[in-house]
């Protein structure tokens, strides 16, 4: 869910956000925060600092940024590249 776009609130007839919309948005926020936090803990401090400076605050933005910066298609591929370089 966190890899998708943040859902937009749906307004009811009274002009307030519906309960279902609120729960969906809140669920997305929680899942995004957990996924983003877990990934940030798994990357090196140097890359983490660059990601913070680049203001990559959603999981999708962070993954897209990592793919662009490091030219990999997945976290596993990036890890393999790092291990390979460290062995040299």
List the helices and strands and how they pair.
Elements lengths: L18 H24 L2 H9 L5 H12 L4 H13 L1
Range of strand content: under 5%
Q: Residue-averaged pLDDT, rounded?
A: 80
Report the biggest beta sheet as strand number plus sense, adding barrel if it closes: none
Oligomeric composition of the shown chains: single chain
Radius of gyration based on Cα positions? 17 Å
Structural category is mainly alpha
Helical content band: 55-70%
Shape type:
elongated
Cα separation of the termini: 38 Å
| Strand/helix succession | HHHH
The overall number of domains is 1
State the total count of DSSP E strands: 0
Total helical segments: 4
Structural commentary:
The chain has one domain. The model has no long low-confidence stretch (mean pLDDT 80). The protein is 66% helix and 0% strand. The chain has 88 residues and is mainly alpha-helical.
Could you provide a short overview of the structure?
The protein has one domain (19-87). It is 66% helix and 0% strand.
Features:
88 residues, mainly alpha, 66% helix, elongated
């Amino acid at each position: 869910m966190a890899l998708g776009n943040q859902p937009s609130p749906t307004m009811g007839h009274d002009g307030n956000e519906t309960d279902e919309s609120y729960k969906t948005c809140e669920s997305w926020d929680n899942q995004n925060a957990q996924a983003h936090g877990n990934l940030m803990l798994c990357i090196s401090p140097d890359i983490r600092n660059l990601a913070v400076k680049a203001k990559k605050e959603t999981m999708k933005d962070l993954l897209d940024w990592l793919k662009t910066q490091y030219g990999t298609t997945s976290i596993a591929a990036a890890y393999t590249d790092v291990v390979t370089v460290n062995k040299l």
